[in-house]
């Protein structure tokens, strides 16, 4: 146990300093707002981070402690203790002190962006986060900012119009300086350790403290963004008796580039990772934009997506195709393991007791490598993949010098297609060869059937995506007769 343990969490609710003792680690921000503070403007819709009705904005200091970063998150799956040292902003606080509406709210009124009103507070908070972050967003940026919010009656046109209109209205006086000063006062070194109802929550601030806690509490649940763990509580009604939060460990939030690799700390969010990943690998842009919506990406971490072992994590196929290496830590010792060796069975990984994921090493781009990723789902945005595929090939003339093929969402674990790779390696990169290689996929995978797709559909799409990759690399149009989706 670290020597310094603080049993209180402190944060700002708008401009009010809140100090809480005996906090139940399983209590969500949404529950606390509605039940303890009667802030009922924030709604509960799906309770799984899918609809955005519960969106709030969290503001926190940047690494230098000089500026604020505003981000929308889903309060229904955000655990209350994770607010320590941050500012929580809800829809009730946007109104100006003189009684006039904030530009976000006024624009929604002017453009008739609300009907039943249930989803409106969530949209307003996503718009507010954009308002505080981007000066003149493009239509694509607006669409992306609202991708995590669902509306069932108004439709999106008036809401998009309101998002454009809010920048034309007078901007309210900034609270930036006062908020920065208040958050600086809340900064206290040491580990947070709170307990209530027999459940414990720890939030270490250093990698050393985290290592000690994980070794002494190997059965504890490691919590990062909570976008998966939160559902264990809200949907499966589990009671998590011991939680160790990794989001306060500065070493796990670093993004560094060496001569050979991009290194991401395991607690780097998708929002923070996307710009650098898209710069290095523009081919990942659509896949990353379609990874949930901003309220999820603002909380979800690359390390969490990898470590929870879910077969439908969209980051894994691309990272496997790129030959990503994981750095695992236990105590003071670390070891490296290829990502494609990390998954053993459904939601079972190669992590030893007391071991956790520290860093992700992604090779820098090789000019000779051709990479493509594909996501097949029922909705373009905010949906789980039926099939997620990634392909990386290196050609020597018209011969395959090396190829890595990875799929997620198809079977019990995200994995490579070794038999298919062997058929292609050393062979000519031709339509005939690739068509033959697609048959090997039947030996590589035993697809599942569920509400998203049948096993037959998944296999056919997996084959077709390999063909699509071939045509993309050769810049040729596929014959119509080649594709058979088996619908």
Give an overview in words.
- This protein has helices at 29-36, 103-110, 120-133, 139-145, 157-165, 176-186, 207-216, 229-234, 270-280, 285-289, 294-297, 302-307, 315-321, 418-424, 431-444, 455-474, and strands at residues 5-6, 8-13, 16-21, 55-61, 68-74, 87-89, 191-196, 199-203, 221-223, 242-245, 255-257, 261-265, 325-330, 333-338, 343-345, 348-349, 356-363, 369-376, 387-396, 399-408, 415-416.
- The chain has 487 residues and is α+β, with helices and mostly antiparallel strands.
- Strand 11 and strand 12 form a beta hairpin.
- Helix 14 runs antiparallel to helix 15 and helix 15 packs antiparallel against helix 16 (455-474).
- The longest helix is centred in the C-terminal third of the chain and has 20 residues, at 455-474.
- The radius of gyration is 23 Å and the shape is globular.
Poorly predicted sequence stretches spanning 5 or more consecutive residues: 481-487
- Described by the principal axes of the CA atoms, the overall outline is globular
Main sheet specs:
5 strands, mixed
Task: State the fourth-level CATH superfamily of the largest domain.
Answer: Beta-grasp domain
Count of all domains: 4
Distance between the termini: 57 Å
- Whole-number mean pLDDT: 93
Q: Helix count?
A: 16
* Strand content range: 15-25%
In the CATH hierarchy, what is the class of the largest domain? Alpha Beta
The secondary-structure class comes to alpha+beta
CATH architectural designation of the largest domain:
Roll
Going across the biggest sheet, name each strand in turn: 1-7-8-10-9
């Amino acid at each position: 146990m670290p020597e310094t343990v603080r049993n209180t969490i402190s944060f700002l609710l708008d401009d009010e300093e809140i100090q809480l003792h005996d906090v139940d680690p399983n209590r969500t921000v949404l529950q606390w707002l509605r039940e303890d503070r009667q802030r009922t403007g924030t709604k509960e819709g799906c309770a799984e981070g899918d609809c955005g009705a519960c969106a709030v904005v969290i503001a926190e200091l940047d690494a230098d402690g000089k500026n604020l970063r505003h981000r929308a998150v889903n309060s229904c799956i955000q655990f209350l203790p994770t607010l320590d040292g941050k500012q929580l902003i809800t829809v009730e606080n946007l109104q100006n002190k003189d009684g006039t509406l904030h530009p976000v709210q006024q624009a929604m009124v002017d453009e008739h962006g609300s009907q039943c009103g249930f989803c409106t507070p969530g949209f307003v908070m996503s718009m507010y986060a954009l308002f505080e972050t981007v000066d003149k967003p493009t239509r694509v940026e607006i669409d992306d900012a609202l991708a995590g919010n669902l509306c069932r009656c108004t439709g999106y046109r008036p809401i998009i119009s309101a998002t454009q209109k809010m920048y034309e209205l007078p901007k309210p006086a900034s609270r930036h300086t006062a908020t920065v000063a208040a958050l600086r006062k809340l900064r206290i070194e040491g580990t947070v350790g709170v307990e209530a109802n027999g459940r414990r929550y720890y939030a270490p601030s250093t990698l050393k403290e985290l290592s000690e806690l994980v070794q002494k509490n190997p059965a504890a649940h490691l919590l990062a963004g909570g976008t998966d763990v939160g559902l264990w509580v809200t949907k499966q009604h589990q009671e998590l008796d011991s939680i160790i939060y990794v989001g306060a460990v500065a070493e796990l939030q670093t993004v560094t580039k060496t001569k050979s690799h991009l290194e991401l700390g395991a607690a780097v969010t998708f929002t923070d990772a996307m710009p650098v990943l898209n710069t290095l690998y523009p081919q990942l842009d659509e896949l990353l934009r379609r990874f949930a919506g901003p309220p999820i990406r603002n909380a979800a971490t690359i390390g969490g997506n990898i470590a929870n072992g879910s077969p439908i994590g969209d980051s894994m196929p691309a990272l496997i195709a790129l030959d990503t290496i994981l750095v695992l830590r236990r105590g003071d010792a670390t070891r490296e393991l290829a990502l494609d060796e990390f998954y053993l069975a459904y939601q079972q990984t190669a992590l030893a007791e007391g071991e956790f994921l520290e860093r992700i090493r992604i090779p820098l781009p090789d000019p000779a490598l051709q990479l493509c990723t594909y996501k097949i789902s029922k909705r373009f945005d905010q949906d789980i993949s039926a099939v997620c595929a990634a392909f990386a090939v290196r050609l020597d003339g018209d011969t395959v010098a090396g190829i890595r093929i990875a799929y997620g969402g198809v079977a019990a674990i995200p994995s490579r297609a070794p038999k298919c790779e062997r058929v292609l390696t050393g062979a000519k990169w031709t339509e005939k060869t690739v068509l033959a290689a697609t048959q090997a996929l039947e030996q590589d995978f035993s697809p599942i059937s569920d509400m998203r797709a049948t096993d037959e559909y998944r296999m056919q799409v997996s084959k077709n995506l390999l063909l699509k990759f071939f045509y993309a690399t050769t810049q040729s149009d596929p014959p119509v007769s080649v594709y058979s989706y088996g619908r």
